[in-house]
Structure formats: structure tokens, C-alpha cells
Amino acid sequence: MTAIQIYTDPETIRFIKKARKWLLLSGMLLMVIVFVSVIFPMLATIATELFIGWIFIFSGLFNLLIFFSYRSMRPGCGPY
């Protein structure tokens, strides 16, 4: 199958047309976010710190969940 055959497939064309609106919308949203972060760098810094902090919290909770689920396994199957 060549690249021309892939892009002329009707299903692929429908998918590209459907995704085009969302790609355009997300690009415009990212441009607005960048513009606001250039104007208000302190606000962008605080938002980034909060976002990364929540990622750390959720990853820590997920790791605790995995840790305690290993304890319920038979000996020798867990990480220890």
C-alpha cells in the first residue's frame, strides 16, 4: 500500500476531516495560553507548579496502591 492509497481511502479522509476541527481548536487554544503566559509570567509559573505538584501527588498515590497490591500476592511474586 502506498502513501497515495492510504490518503485516498474514504475512511481516512473522513477521519482527517473530523480531526481537523479539533486540531485547529487546540492550536488556537495553545496560542492563547502562550500569549497569556508571556503577559503574566508569574501566573504561568504558579499554574505550572500546581500542575506538576498534582502529577507528583497522583503518581505517589498510584505507587502506594501498587505497593500494597504486591503485599497481597504470594511470597516471591512481588518486588521484594
Describe the secondary-structure layout.
Blueprint: H1 3-7, H2 10-39, H3 41-71
- What is the overall pLDDT average? 84
The amount of helix comes to over 70%
- The sequence of SSEs as H and E is HHH
Distance between the termini: 49 Å
Structural class: mainly alpha
Query: What is the chains' assembly state?
Result: single chain
The Rg value, from CA coordinates, equals 23 Å
Helix count equals 3
Largest β-sheet summary = none
Count of extended strands:
0
| Low-pLDDT sequence parts | none
Q: What is the total number of structural domains?
A: 2
Query: Which term fits the overall shape?
Result: flat
- Which band does the percent of strand residues land in? under 5%
Task: Walk me through the structure.
The protein folds into 2 domains: 39 residues; 40 residues, no CATH class. The chain is 82% helix and 0% strand. The chain contains 3 helices and no strands. The model has no long low-confidence stretch (mean pLDDT 84).
